[in-house]
């Protein structure tokens, strides 16, 4: 028998046989699938995948390698990766590391030789599926209990300052200062804000409104992050106060938290939106953007007297964007920072910066 044979045991009772990319202990997690054809490095390093085993439906992974620039966080936080074919010799033009080197460096369990499309069919059919990757053929149990502390595992523990001028000596006059509340932020969010001439302070996710006020920001971004937004109910009062006080932009988990903090409801999608080609309609202009997405939960309802639904998903009509009718709060379910995927929706950041500049127009209550 070949030495690197391993198994994926699913909570549905299914068992799939594959091979370890490198010898690892097993792992467990919620099974999700991502349909992007490229961007596997950004997927692997997006902290929102913490606690999840990610199946890539595109068959060849690793073909242009990995590099230091495309890391979306300091390390991968996903529980495991399932692929069909690993590329062993990537195109060298952008590559500093191979998939094998990345997996061994961070000790990520990677299983290959799996029919990822068949696996995806199982996940789509059952919706909420948990899996265990192991060398053991006869394992029968796998976790079915959600980890409620995922954000704590990925958020920064100390504040981090980012500036185009690393020494803070020559800040551009009128440069905006943005606080990013870190529920598991992707570096591309900070990079986009820096490119727009902002400087940024990333704060731990549970930072109080007093801490935020002490930094005197012009606006606050609530970042993406892992897990079920309802598990963070103890943060909602604080988020309500912050978003009522500062112009705010919510992205993905941050968006769901803004909705909950303002009396909205969230729910689980049947099998999530994870990929780089999810069509989203701007309800004002009628234009459709092709967006980057990674979420399993969604806003189910929000008080439409005070909130306008600004964007909807073209495929399933789910809510993709909301804006407060009188306060400067914008919030989107998709990823305007892209990475991976298209930047069709990047104007969301410009709209947010405009809210900071025209504070007078949408005054806080
Ligand atoms: N990318 C994210 O922020 C994901 C949000 C949330 N964890 C979800 O799955 O819906």
From TrEMBL:
One of its GO terms (molecular function) is ATP binding. This is Carbamoyl phosphate synthase small chain. The active site is at residues 252, 335, 337. Pathway: Pyrimidine metabolism; UMP biosynthesis via de novo pathway; (S)-dihydroorotate from bicarbonate: step 1/3; Amino-acid biosynthesis; L-arginine biosynthesis; carbamoyl phosphate from bicarbonate: step 1/1. Belongs to the CarA family. InterPro entries: Anth_synth/Amidotransfase, CarbamoylP_synth_ssu, CarbamoylP_synth_ssu_N, CarbP_synth_ssu_N_sf, Class_I_gatase-like, CPSase_GATase1, GATASE. Residues 1-177 are annotated as: CPSase. It catalyses: L-glutamine + H2O = L-glutamate + NH4(+); hydrogencarbonate + L-glutamine + 2 ATP + H2O = carbamoyl phosphate + L-glutamate + 2 ADP + phosphate + 2 H(+). The lineage of its organism: Bacteria, Bacillati, Bacillota, Bacilli, Bacillales. It is an enzyme of class 6 (ligase). L-glutamine binds at residues 48, 225, 227, 253, 256, 294, 296-297. One of its GO terms (biological process) is glutamine metabolic process. The keyword DNA repair does not apply. It comes from Salirhabdus euzebyi. NCBIfam families: CPSaseIIsmall, PRK12838.1. It comes from the Bacteria. SMART domains: CPSase_sm_chain. CDD domains: GATase1_CPSase (cd01744). Keywords: Amino-acid biosynthesis, Arginine biosynthesis, ATP-binding, Glutamine amidotransferase, Ligase, Nucleotide-binding, Pyrimidine biosynthesis. Its EC number is 6.3.5.5.
